[in-house]
Amino acid sequence: MNIAFSPCPNDTFVFHAWVHGLIPGAPQLNVTYADIDITNNLAANPSSHELDILKISYAALPWVLDEYALLPCGGALVEAVAH
Questions:
Q1: Residue 14 is assigned to a structural domain of this protein
Q2: Is 71 part of a structural domain of the chain?
Q3: Integer Cα distance of 74 and 5 in angstroms
Q4: Is the pLDDT assigned to residue 62 strictly greater than 90?
Q5: Average pLDDT of the residues in 64-69
Q6: What total number of domains does the chain contain?
Q7: What domain of life does the UniProt record list for this protein's source (predicted)?
Q8: Is residue 80 one of the residues assigned to a domain?
Q9: What distance in Å separates the CA atoms of residue 39 and residue 6, rounded to the nearest whole number?
Q10: What residues are paired with 2 via a beta bridge?
C-alpha cells in the first residue's frame, strides 16, 4: 500500500507501528513524507498520484469525500487557544 503523511511527530507516532512492520498481518507500506499542504493537494487531485491512503487536514475532508473514505483512526483534532 502507498501512504502519504506529514513528518510531524503526531503523524509519525500514529503510523509508527504500521510503517515499521510491527502489526502482524498488516500490508507493507510504501511511505511518502510530505507537508500537510502537499497531502491536501494530492487528495484534491487523485489522478495525479498512486497513493492509497493520505493523511490530510480535517478541514480538507469535505472536498475529497467523493474520492476517499474517512478512517476511524489516525486523526488528531486540536483546539486553538488564543492568549
A1: yes
A2: no
A3: 10
A4: yes
A5: 90
A6: 1
A7: Bacteria
A8: no
A9: 8
A10: 30
Helix, strand, or coil here: 2? strand
- Extract the C-alpha cell encoding 39: 497531502
Q: Quick: pLDDT tens for 18-60.
A: 999 999 999 999 999 999 999 999 999 988 899 999 999 988 9
Residue 74 inside a domain? The answer is no
Q: Which domain holds residue 25?
A: 2-63
DSSP class of 20: T
Position 70 scores a pLDDT of 86
For 22-58, the DSSP string reads -STTPPP-EEEE--HHHHHHHHH-GGG---SEE---G
Question: What backbone phi and psi angles, to 5 degrees, belong to 53?
Answer: -135, 135
State the cell numbers at 9. Answer: 511527530
Average pLDDT over every residue of 5-24: 93
Residue with cell 488528531: 76
CB 30 within 8 A of CB 2: yes
